[in-house]
Amino acid sequence: MTLKLGMVTADTTDALELGTWWAEQTGAEVAEENDGHYVMVRGGGLPVVLAFQKVDEVTPGKNRLHLDLTTDDLEAETERLLAAGASLVGRRGDENFRWHTLADPQGNEFCIATQQA
Fold it and tell me: Is the dihedral of CA 104, 35, 9, 63 positive or negative?
C-alpha cells in the first residue's frame, strides 16, 4: 500500500478568509467554499490542494504541520508576503541554504526557501 498526499489542511476560525488569503498568495483559486466550513484552494503554484477547516477555537501552541514553499527570489517573495499581511518569524540558514519562517494572518507558520537545483 502506498500513501499519497491528498491535501494539506489547517484549522482556522475563519476558513473563507484564510483560504482566500492563501489563494491570492499562491496564484490559486478558492475551488470550494462549503458555506465557509471547509474551504479548498487549488491551482496556481500549488502541487496539492490546501484546505481550511473552520473550528471554534484553534489549538494553542506551535503548528504540528506547516507548509514549506519555494521561490526563485527569497527576499522579494518575503517582502511581498509581508506586505500582504504575513508576519516574519525569522530569517534562518547559512551560506549553503537559507529560508525564512513567516506566519499567515492567523498565525499559522510556514517556510519559504530558494528552489534547490
Answer: positive
pLDDT, one tens digit per residue, over 80-110 is: 999 999 999 999 988 888 999 999 999 999 9
Q: Going by DSSP bridges, is the β-strand pair 109-114/38-42 parallel, antiparallel, or unpaired?
A: unpaired
Q: Is 23 helix (H, G, I), strand (E, B) or coil?
A: helix
pLDDT digits (tens, 9 = 90+) for 19-34: 999 999 999 999 999 9
What whole-number distance in Å separates Cα of residue 46 and Cα of residue 38? 18
CA distances from 93 to 21, 41, 60, 99, 100 (A): 27, 30, 27, 6, 8
